[in-house]
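Protocol step 4 of 6.
Sequence for Methionyl-tRNA formyltransferase (Deinococcus carri) entered exactly as in the expression construct, tag removed. Do not edit the line below.
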Amino acid sequence: MSVPAAPRVAFFGSPAFALPVLEAIREHFEVVLVVAQPDKPVGRGLRLTPPPVAARAAELGLPLAQPKKLRGNAAFEAQLRESGADVAVTCAYGKILPASLLAVPRFGFLNTHTSLLPAYRGAAPIQWALIRGESVTGTTIMQTDVGMDTGPILLQEALPIAPEWTSLELADALGTQAARLIVEALSSLPDLTPTPQDEAAATHAPMLVKEDGFVRWQEDAQAVVNRYRGVAAWPQTTAFLNGARLKLGGLSVTEGRGQPGEVLRVAADGLTVACGQGAVRVETVQPEARRAQSAGVWAQAVGVAAGTRFDLWEPAPA
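Step 5 output, structure tokens:
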């Protein structure tokens, strides 16, 4: 099967993370269709709002589809076929692709995945790489199959994780990397050799839930900070004091010993709180329905002093 010099591309993506990939593709290739998730209610007014990829496609005047479902959707399959796409690219699209759809483009679907597959398959590879303390991650361009990130690897490149990065900074770096790699992959379709993934080495990165942001003071200080870095975009870091929820910001490892959750020091630069091993400094605190403020100012206002203990939270047994 001959590959066109400049393959026509259908792009499937939804959040802002996918925008650099879309922009890179359209700079080098013809984008014949953009597919995003349907508009959703957003904000207090629940205003129906398009996902960032759909909004950008509309700005650019690109053909846009937002199907509510893919499986059994003959009309959408026909739309994809009629677009003339030689290949489709997915980037954080957010829906499982049925086999019938995967067979429509001549060269199938390529997926940009933000991990070094087979590590961290699933919905939240950026977040879980940070939570689990990885120092290196990367981007994989894979041929999509019917499994969850199980298809053969076409291109892969590592990316060192800076120790101060949260999920926000890591997502930016991986988005830039993915944009460059997908252009390379689309430019080299005839020369790419699919490499099967090692199933025995597979790990998983499930979608985050709110409880993933709850501080586990019983863990060592680095693990507490790693979790803070991983959940920075959502659900953010939550602690409890006498049952009240508090969002914590600016966590870093520091020196100190005490009972897990015990406040060791209150100062202008923040709170020092003991963990299972070591301690962390907390720069900001945000009580519910209020703005974030200096942790030291908050502590003085509510009477938190050395010896105060945050509530301990543990996940329910699996």
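Step 6, annotate. The helical segments are 19-28, 52-60, 74-82, 99-102, 125-131, 167-187, 221-230, 295-302.
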